[in-house]
Amino acid sequence: MNNKKILLIDADSLMYYEMGAKSLEEATANIDKRINSMLKTTGATSYAGFLTIGKCFRYDIGNNCVYNNLPYKHNRKGGVKPIIFYALKEYLQQEPYSFVALKGLEADDAVGIYAQIAKDAGYIPTVCSPDKDVLLQIPGRHYNYQKAAFIKTSESDAEKFLWKQTLMGDSTDGVPGIKGLGAKTADKLLEICGTFGEPKASQIVIDEYIKKYGVREGITRFAETFNLVYILRSEDEGTRITALPHISTLLTSKSTPNVETSNDFADSEWA
Asked: Which of 33, 83, 120, 209 has its CA 20 to 30 A from that of 193?
């Protein structure tokens, strides 16, 4: 393969952005334009996309928590999703896209896992998503297709964001952290991480849980929150949940459906 640049696309967000479309035709045309723009902007010639279908492994974790005893994503509004949502899922699983859903995994986990698999296989992956959890917790090259912006997330920054989420929880997914602890306090606690002679981030976070809840409850709450906010990022982690197809079987270089070149989704350059 001459061009090793590939895209790993969080397709869940692609669909959610089109929930306000007036028709399925409008929604699919917007998705086609956006994917064309990603390929043009990044210089990639191959891509793979990932969807979430059904409940992921975090629901089982949530159901078995001792203290975080509310279901995972319990705060999300229920009800039946619009018909267009299911139509777009079907559209993205067909040619030319052939995007996949991996049983038990969220799209976030799939892009995290395959980003590392791709690197190990000699590819240069760019993760395409506007989701802050994906952008900030998965190390590597990112393209935020909502803002047409490139981001490079270092290993150390990804680790620090993970520990920040473990301290605070994730209100979007209904995951509690340490009650009353906000972003400013979390940032202040983690400022000293990596300084010679200072405790590691993991120990700082555990200590805060123990201070708040005592040893037994604190350690248990820490583990529950960590397991709910952590995005999987290795092949070993993924295979504990489900069988993982070889990356070569997921990549496609097929052209997206013919659409007129559009400036709707502005291009950017790597910094």
From this structure: 120
Tokens of 210: 């123990």
pLDDT single digits (tens) 104-162: 999 999 999 999 999 999 999 999 999 999 999 999 999 999 999 999 999 999 999 99
The pLDDT tens digits for 163-221 are 999 999 998 888 999 999 999 999 999 988 766 666 789 999 999 999 999 999 999 99
- For the domain made up of 156-229, give the CATH fold: DNA polymerase; domain 1 (1.10.150)
Q: What SS3 string covers 215-247? A: HHHHHHHHHHHHHHHCCCCCHHHHHCCCCCCCH
Structure tokens at 182: 């906000």
3-state secondary structure of 150: strand
pTM over 0.85: yes
Q: Which two tokens stand for residue 102?
A: 């991996």
Residues 131 and 109: their CA atoms lie apart, in Å, by: 12
* 3 state SS of 100: strand
Q: Does domain 5-154+232-250 have CATH number 3.40.50.1010?
A: yes
- The conformation of residue 237, written as its DSSP 8-state character, comes to H
CA dihedral 101, 104, 106, 112 (to 10 degrees): -90
Interaxial angle between packed helices 24-42 and 83-93, expressed in degrees from 0 to 180 and rounded to the nearest 10: 40
What whole-number distance in Å separates Cα of residue 187 and Cα of residue 93?
Answer: 40
Tokens of 156: 């150390």
- Provide the residue ranges of all domains of the chain, joining segments of one domain with +: 5-154+232-250, 156-229
CA angle 166, 167, 170 (to 5 degrees): 60
